[in-house]
Amino acid sequence: MPINTSTATGSIALGLVGLDSIAAFKSIADRIFRRPQYDEASLAKTAYRDSDGEATEESLRAFSDKWQRVTIAVFSVIGLGISLSLAVLSTLRDDLNNPVLNWLQFTIWVLLAIQAIAFFTEPRPASRFRLGQFAFVGSIIPIAVAGFEIQQAYLSQDILFQNQTWIRLVAGAIVSASFRGLFTILLPRRPNVYFEGGVVDKEFTITALGRYSFTWASDLLSFTVGRTNLEISDLPKLRAEKRADSLRAKFERAQGTGNIWKGIFVAHWRPLLLQMSLTTVIGFLTFGPQLALFNILQSLEGRDSEGWTPTRSWIWVSALGIFMLLYSTVEAWLFWSVWSKIAIPVYAELTAVVFAKSMRRKDAKHTKSSKEEDEAQASAKALLTGEDKKEEEDDDEEDVKKSRQSIINLAAVDARRISDVTSFLYMIPSAILKIVIGCSFLVNVLGWQSALAGLGVSVFIAPMNIAVTRRYTNAQVKIMKLRDQKMAIVTEVIQGIRQIKFSALEEQWQKRIRQVRENELGALWASFYYDVFLLAIWILGPIAFASVSLTVYTILYGNLTASVAFTALAVFGSLEVALAVLPEIITNLLEAQVSASRIDEYMASSEKVTNTVPSDSISFEDATVAWPAEHHPGEQQGEEERFQLRDLNFHLPKKGLSVISGRTGSGKSLLLASILGECDVLGGIVKVPVPPTLKNRFDHLATSANWIIDDAIAYVAQMPWIENASIKDNILFGLPFNESRYRKVLFACALEKDLEMLPDGELTDIGANGINLSGGQRWRVSFARALYSRAGILVMDDIFSALDAQTGRHVFEHALSGELGQGRTRVLVTHHVALCLPRTDYSVLLENGCVKYAGTIDELQKSNHLADILREEHAAEETHQKAVDDKQDVQDSEGGTLQKVISNTSHRRPSTTANVNATTTSKDAPKKFVKDEEREKGSVRLSIYKAYFKMGGGLLTWATTASVFATYAVLMVGRSWWISVWTSSSSSSAAKPEMFQALLQHPMSGSNTVTTGRPEVDPQLTMYLGVYIGISALACLVGAVRFYCALSSSVRASRNLFDSLVYAVLRAPMRWLDTVPMGRLLNRFTADFHLIDSRLGYEIAFLLAEMLDVCGIIFAGIIVSPFVIVLAIALLAICLKLSMTFLAGARQAKRLESIAKSPVFEQFGSSLAGLVTIRAFSKTEAFIETMYSKINAHAQSWWAVWLFNRWLGIRMNLVGAIFSTLTAALVVSLPGMSASMAGFALSFALQCNAAIGFALRQYSNLELNMNATERVVEYSEIELENQGGAAAPAAWPTEGRLEVDNLVVSYAPDLPPVLKGLSFTVEKNQRVGVVGRTGAGKSSLTLALFRFLEAREGSIFIDGLDVSKIKLHDLRSRLAIIPQDPVIFSGSVRSNLDPFEEHTDAELNDALARVHLISSSDDEATLTSQTATPHPAGGTGATTPNTATAQTTNSNLFSSLSASISEGGLNLSQGQRQLLCLARAIVSRPKIMVLDEATSAVDMETDALIQQSIRAEFDATTLLVIAHRLSTIADFDRILVLDAGKAVEFGTPRDLMDIENGVFKNLVENSGEKAVLEKVIFG
Question: What are the boundaries of the region Disordered (predicted)?
Answer without folding.
Answer: 365-401, 900-932, 1419-1447
